[in-house]
């Protein structure tokens, strides 16, 4: 089951049919208890409408309302290695090794909704950064009770040179205009065990040519989804829920940096494709 957020309302795709939800408020919709079950119950009173397909293509938005976006760091071994390498001259390499093995995960604030772009809109690279990369990630859609309601795709744009210069610069490396993309929709009714069988991949095109591509398995995420969500909700209240990026296991080589005009395409097997061009902000 797929849930689309559009300018004209919330659209539900179920078994190749499309339905317009009676609920107009996105925050109320995604925070329904047992969301997958509740949506299936709602479908009993809705009529399928094939014309909604065109509406999706014209008016799709990022699947976020008033949720904060947070992110998990160093959840893959590949990420641990990359973070250690980029920060070793600043003396921070050992910290990433420690957090990978630690009981407590690294969680950090990523974006408010106004910094998030939908599929097709431009993600940003900072004007004061020299080494910018996309980070393809599975995103957990978590309701206000701390329960995982669905899954989507996230692009955690990052300035690796700024983060590597000093660990205290992490907010500047991660939080800026157009620093996050989400979409294309929310997938409901997927158990973690199944999601961990999926692969996540990325392709970056420049002037029509592929300049980087990579792939890994979501099964390589060290911590369980429930564990990550549980730590996020410790001593924190999210009245509208939250979206949590689960970390990246695909890191371009150190010689690579994004350029304005590049196109980033992230695919997760059981969800779909998130595509965004790149612009300098």
Protein described:
The chain has 281 residues and is α+β, with helices and mostly antiparallel strands. The chain has 2 domains: 2-59, no CATH class; 68-280, Alpha-Beta Complex (Fumarylacetoacetate hydrolase, domain 2), CATH 3.90.850. The chain is 23% helix and 34% strand. The chain has helices at 26-30, 35-43, 52-59, 77-87, 93-101, 160-165, 170-174, 192-195, 225-232, and strands at 2-6, 9-14, 17-20, 68-73, 106-111, 116-117, 123-125, 132-133, 136-142, 148-156, 158-159, 180-187, 199-206, 209-217, 242-245, 263-268, 272-280. The strands form 3 sheets. Strands 1, 2, 3, 4, 5, 6, 9, 10, 12 and 15 form a 10-stranded mixed β-sheet that branches. Helix 4 packs antiparallel against helix 5 (93-101). The radius of gyration is 18 Å and the shape is globular.
């Amino acid at each position: 089951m797929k849930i689309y957020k559009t300018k004209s309302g919330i659209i539900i795709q179920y078994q190749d049919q499309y339905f317009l939800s009676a609920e107009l408020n996105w925050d109320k919709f995604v925070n329904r208890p047992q969301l997958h079950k509740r949506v299936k119950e709602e479908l009993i009173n809705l009529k399928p409408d094939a014309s909604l397909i065109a509406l999706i293509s014209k008016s799709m938005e990022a699947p976020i309302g008033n949720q904060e976006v947070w992110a998990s760091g160093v959840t893959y071994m590949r990420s641990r290695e990359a973070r250690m390498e980029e920060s070793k001259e600043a003396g921070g390499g050992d910290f990433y090794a420690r957090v990978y093995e630690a009981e407590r995960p690294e969680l950090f604030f990523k974006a408010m909704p106004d910094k998030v772009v939908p599929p097709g809109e431009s993600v940003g690279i900072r004007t004061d950064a020299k080494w910018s990369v996309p980070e393809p990630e599975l995103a957990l859609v978590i309701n206000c009770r701390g329960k995982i309601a669905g899954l989507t795709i996230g692009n955690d744009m990052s300035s690796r040179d700024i983060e590597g210069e000093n660990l205290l610069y992490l907010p500047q490396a991660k939080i800026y205009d157009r620093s996050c993309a989400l979409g294309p929709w929310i997938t409901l009714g997927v158990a973690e065990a199944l999601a961990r069988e999926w692969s996540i991949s990325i392709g970056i095109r420049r002037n029509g040519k592929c300049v980087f591509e990579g792939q890994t398995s979501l099964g390589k995420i060290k911590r369980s989804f429930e564990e990550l969500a549980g730590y996020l909700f410790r001593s924190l209240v999210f009245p509208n829920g939250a979206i949590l990026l689960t970390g990246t296991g695909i890191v371009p080589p150190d010689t690579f940096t994004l350029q304005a005009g590049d196109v980033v395409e992230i695919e997760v097997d059981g969800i779909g494709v998130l595509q965004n061009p790149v612009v300098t902000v």
